[in-house]
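Hi L., both proteins are below.
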Amino acid sequence: MASDTRQRMVEGAARLLAQHGLHETSFSEVLELTGTPRGSIYHHFPAGKDQLIAAAIDAAGAHAVALIGRASSTSAPDITAHFLSMWREVLVRSNYTAGCSVLAVTIATDSHDLLSHAANVFRTWRLRLADLLIDGGLDPRTAAQFAALLIASAEGAVVLSRAEEGMEPFELVAEQLAAQAAALAAAAAASASESASASASASASAVSASDSSALDWASSAVDRADSHSASADDAGAD
């Protein structure tokens, strides 16, 4: 029961952060949203509000990582479409009133500890996306670059759409990201094809060289045999 109460408070804080930001997310608001008793505050979060906020962004980050892992495939276009669909759903379901709780803390706090938690969440997202993109064929450097671009662009697009209360800014950014993902996937496929062709050509050359060496050896053996026979004939004639 105690763990359930704490979890409700953490999830409630994450929701409030996404909708109202750091400064409007108070213990009172969390208690009202989650229906938990006031005594729960210092029982579960004796270090105060920052402890609750840190737990909330950690939980939000872990939830996003779990969602990222549900992509239908690891191709760059599919990963991009899946990641963008996560944020599109946040905007649509909240009617443009919610965004990223981790970003909300990042831009509003002066706590090094909370910034450290936020940085860890963003870093984890980058690494998870990069790993999936590498599995999909991108080289590690390109995967790391595109993962960072994908997160930064999606976060910015969410902010713009919330401000304009419409999907147009988000979809404009999504269109550009989708095009870049497709281009990266095509380039990776072309590079893999060229590498396979080069490898096949090198193997064929090695086989050809081996066959040529074998023929040279056989020809040399025949010449030696002919020479030996000729010498034997000459010796018999003498």
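That was the first. Here is the second:
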Amino acid sequence: MTRRIISISYKILTICFLTVGILLNILTTRSIRSILSYYTLQSNIICLIAFVYFTYQEMRKKSYKTTLYYKIKGALMIAIFVTGFIYTIALAPNQFQMTYSQTLSKQIANLLVHAISPIAVILDYFLFDEKGKFKHSDTAFWLVFPLYYVIYVYTYRYLGGEFYNIGGSKKYAYFFLDYEKIGYKGVVKWILLIGICIHMISYLLCYVDCKLSKKD
């Protein structure tokens, strides 16, 4: 079995993880609009779209791993990493679930979108991508999706949208974005803390990428 076939098979498996996780959350929710407005679902969806494209290109034997590819791949890794990171440090300690019910299907959905799918997306880089392609200048671009989501939440709320209360805030999805509860300073502190952590992880990813390229 060639490396290309293994890569395609792995990507298809990752697509399955992403698809099942997204669909289980949609099928077990009371409000599709609300569930799709969470960062978790949006980051999983953008990774799903990207992996479908990557798989399609590999099946066509097209050369698609350009400089832009690695810039986008890094952004996807950081975006989906934030899902697992926020869940681990801020949400899991508060017994966070994407839905209220504790049925097996919903527990599986929660595990898929917060852990299994993020790990699968990140591992794809380590297993199949050429190393030494990430640039420190790309790290600013990798912040685009997390920053977009902050803008999305406040825009969505301004237009009358609501979330569940499962993230600590029915109005702003996650407690650390709810200025009505923790104040503007509290929100700014959380955003800065998360932003600094993401930036540090981005630089760490570049460092690891560089070290792995030397080993190759």
